[in-house]
Amino acid sequence: MNLRHFTKAEILDLETLYRRNLMNTLIGFKNANLVATKSKDGTENLAIFNSLVHIGANPPHIGFVMRPTTVERHTYDNIHETGYYTFNHVHTSFVEKAHQTSAKYPRNVSEFEACGFTPLYQNDFFAPYVQESHIQVGMKFVEEIFIKTNEVYLIIGEVQEFFVQEDCIRPDGFIDLAKAGTAVVSGLDGYYEACEIARFSYARPNQAIQKIF
Question: Fewer CB within 10 A of the terminal residue: the chain, N end or C end?
């Protein structure tokens, strides 16, 4: 195996685009989600994010990273104005349309309309869901943590409700994301299909791991 060595000094000296691609793919595959919001005046917004992270199950909290607010961030503004937003898994069948939501549309333009998605309102939840998504999660803003070193925000919300294709939920509660068709991302612009290799039993010292799927 021939491994190339990069030092911190070499990383900082790389050409900007090369460094961005290198560092964004270094951490491996990430989840692909469309974050849907609505402003107080009713303008719907949709943007793709690949930085979601599980915070905890009780209470059910999910976080995602918001880039610096030195430029307009409509998702950030809408979440702060209203407190509600949704996560919608990107399906492998519409990755191109989902990627287009990363374009910098004016505040008065809805990415739902511009990129060909359908807003869906359920159970009087304030923020829209993406009708085309097979997994939809309704979120309420809880807190944000400013990460000074990169001037980004970790936005933390509490799950209020969610919708999952029923045949993708296994008897133990495990969601089969491959069966659901959820896409994963490498870097900022590479999309892949997920394929399960195995599931294993809970690991304990001096006990053999059991393959459960």
Answer: N
